[in-house]
Amino acid sequence: MLTRQYVKADVDGQIGRIRLNRPERYNALNRTMIREIVKVMEQFDQDETVAVIVLSGEGKSFSAGADIDEMVDATPISMELLDPFADWDRISRLHKPLIAAVHGFVLGGGFELALACDLIYATPETQFGFPEVGLGVMPGAGGTQRLTRRIGRTRALEWLWTGERMLAPEAERLGIINRVFASEQFEQDVMTRAHQIAAQPPISVRLIKDAVDKAGDLSLQDGMDHERRNFYLLFGTADQTEGMQAFLEKRQPTFKGN
Ligand code: CO8
């Protein structure tokens, strides 16, 4: 168990699990906590025994956002010098599938942390929201950008301006999250899904993520060129030979990750 001050982490099969562990403060994210989360994520990303990373929260909630106590006295210059988002930026450079398994409150920076993951699963009672406007600020860790890309400008604006909360089934309907799983067996359902992805050939999984990430930034033709290069690359893997051979021989493939 890779336990740190604000984070618990362990490996279950091929799943690297990270739990935010500041439950008495609804897992409010201070700088140390973000640094710890990202460090463990990077450790798992480099660990050959881990195929998928699952991020969740201890206690009643995933996270009520950035630690307001830590921000109350900040100035533009102190923020510029501190560069608090440098750690956040490293999340988007991870290669392995990153799943946010959320419950309770998922607010502000907590919501931005979930949106920085590849997939989001939630319990039906989970409440998502960006309350920053009511604090005289706005999201700063990607909220306006990632939310707008998912639900479009008009919906994003209304939600960010009002600071209203949304329940998980509505977030699922709008395509902000992937799926809602019943609370009673939430952890099992998330782990089943994580194991399902972990069983796939890891280089395919990695290059699919890489290509999908390009879809937001490149023109269609440039994106397709990038996709094609990744596609060709996979024909250099043993897992491609095994996957196609197994299909022809009508048996289950055994992937080795190379
Ligand atoms: N920061 C610091 N402390 C918090 C936070 C927070 N975000 N959220 C809860 N807490 C603390 C409370 O102060 C309280 O502490 P104490 O017991 O010492 O009084 C404890 O957690 C329990 O909270 P409540 O008593 O308020 O519990 P309730 O059940 O009444 O309410 C809520 C729970 C609804 C979650 C409520 O606590 C709340 O509204 N919290 C603040 C939510 C919020 O505004 N989040 C946005 C923060 S700003 C942000 O996220 C900007 C992100 C930009 C990236 C920043 C990178 C540096």
Automatic annotation (TrEMBL):
CDD domains: crotonase-like (cd06558)
Keyword Ubl conjugation among record annotations: no
Family annotation (Pfam families): ECH_1 (PF00378)
Gene3D superfamilies in the record: 2-enoyl-CoA Hydratase, Chain A, domain 1, Lyase 2-enoyl-coa Hydratase, Chain A, domain 2
Coiled coil: none
InterPro entries cross-referenced by the UniProt entry: ClpP/crotonase-like_dom_sf, Enoyl-CoA_hyd/isom_CS, Enoyl-CoA_hydra/iso, Enoyl-CoA_hydra_C
Superkingdom of the source species: Bacteria
Spans through the membrane: none
Keywords: Lyase
Similarity remark: Belongs to the enoyl-CoA hydratase/isomerase family.
Record PANTHER family: ENOYL-COA HYDRATASE, MITOCHONDRIAL, ENOYL-COA HYDRATASE-RELATED
Identification of the protein by name: Enoyl-CoA hydratase
Annotated organism of origin: Exiguobacterium undae
